[in-house]
Amino acid sequence: MKKLPYILIAAALLLPAATAADKKIDIGLRKQLQSYVVAEGLSNPSSVSFSPAGHLTVCDSANGRVVTIKDGVVTDYITGFPTEYWKVDKETGAKRFKLGPLSAVWVNEKTLAVTNAGLADGEEVVAFFDGPGTADSGKSTNAVGPTSDDPADKGEGNLTGLSATEDGSTLFVAGQGSDAKTWVLKVDTATHKLSGAFSADAAGIEINSPMATMVWGPNAILALYSGAGGKDDGLIVQWNIKTGKVVKKWTLPGLTDPMGFARVPDTNSVVVVDNNWALTEVKAGRLARVLLPRMEDEAKVNILSEQLHGPVSCAFGPDGGLYIAQLGSEFDSDKGQILRIDGIKKFEPKKKKK
Question: Which of 4, 45, 234, 322 is most buried, taking the most CB atoms under 10 A from its CB?
């Protein structure tokens, strides 16, 4: 299974529509949209999220920390997470994609949940923090061990793509274990129990590598699957929370390695960031606005940009802007960035003439 690196954002700030620290950047967007650099100097950032109070939160994954960002200033929030290299070349010993915390989401005004993804498969947990501190100060869930008879199955790892129900009682997280059993997991926040929720393999879905989750109404979630690296086989699956059954699934034509998505506020469409992943370099990535038709199995994909640099996660802020974590021009370096794109909520793609 492709265990792709990701990176997150977690901490404190209510952003205005634009700040003096933001730097305008050209990423080839439609003319109605504007893009800005909110923060730089991160290493393999993995995800962005906001607290109920509007605090911007980021996982600076390769640096083993979760940070807050305000006016371009990066401030430690939780530090000391263990890290590991996702890929080590057996012949040369070359190490690639250093990973630590990959995802964070606020459970409520006080509590932040973070995936401790720098551990070995079968040892990773979700940790809960009630304020700034160090990784060992959190309260952790159990880990999830092997769920199949495949000898290669060491248990769930590279946990990423956290989302929370509106009441904060349940979290969903994408697991990267063995291809023999592909899982979206869930966390009971009252008991801190981590367990399997939805198995793509058990549902007859061949596409694996779940990368992100999103609560979609009171009884459903969406899960984003990136599929095989470099192939146009990404998938969004709607799961029924109560029954564990597939409600609907959509292919994503034109997107090769989708890794993050966010619901466009007050709509039934989403935006998707496509990493266009490669093991040896950061390739040009895409941003798309995606409509999920009720009666069709193919999503309507409208590409907004093809000039991102390894985007891995996105979230809308309270200011209406779309915030994107991207690897930057190089991974395993200090090139990681957080971007903000304005105007997506109001943007409506032109309909094709029949």
Answer: 45
